[in-house]
Amino acid sequence: MRLNDIEVPSGINKDRKRVGRGAGSGHGKTAGRGTKGQKARTGGNVPPRFEGGQTPLQQTLPYKRGFTNIWAQRYNIVNLGQLASMEKGTDVTGESLVALGILRDTNRPLKVLGDGELGVALNITAHKVSEGARQKIESAGGSITLIEEPKEPRRSKGRTEAPIRAMKARQAGK
Question: How far apart are CA 29 and CA 32, in angstroms?
Fold first, then answer.
C-alpha cells in the first residue's frame, strides 16, 4: 500500500449548505435567516454582548468591573518576618524602615502583621498592629507604641467646615 492508494471513506466529507438557491432546496428566499431584522441583513452579525444600542450590561453594572472605595485607608504593611534580622532593642518606626529599605516612603500609616517569627525584642512604633503580631512581639520581650492620629472628617467635593457652619448659621437666623 502506498500514499496514493489511500481513499477517503464515502460520507466523511459533507457538502456545505447552499442557501438562497431556490424554493426547492428548502433554504430559498430568506435563506434560513427569518424575515427582516438586523440579523437578516448583510453584515448583521453582532457580538453576543450587543444589546441593540441599549447601554450594555457591563457598563450599567459598575460593580461587575470592580469598585474603588475612596474612603478606604491604605497602609504600609510590614510582617514580623521582615523585622527578624534586626538587633535586640532596636526602635522600629516608619522612618527607620525607609532607611533600611523595607518601605519606600512614610506617606501611609504603618501596620504590622504577624506573618513570620520574631526572636528578638524590638520597640515598635506603628499606627496599627494585628493581634497575632502583638502576641509574638510581647512574647519575644518587645514593646508596642501605637500612634494616634486624629481622623479627618469625610467630606466630598472639597467641602470644608467653614462654609457648612456659615450655612447652618443662615438657617438658624431665618
Answer: 8
Single pTM value for the model: 0.53
Residues 106-130 pLDDT 10s: 999 999 999 999 999 999 999 999 9
Structural domain includes residue 124:
yes
Answer whether residue 111 is part of any domain. Answer: yes
pLDDT tens digits for range 59-86? 888 776 677 788 888 999 999 999 999 9
Q: Distance between CA 16 and CA 174 in Å, rounded?
A: 83
Cell numbers for 152: 479627618
- Domain assignment of residue 101, given as a range: 76-146
Question: Could you tell me how far CA 117 lies from the centroid of its own chain?
Answer: 30
| Cell numbers at 39, concatenated | 440579523
Q: Would you say 136 and 114 are in contact if contact means Cβ atoms under 8 Å apart?
A: yes
DSSP 76: E
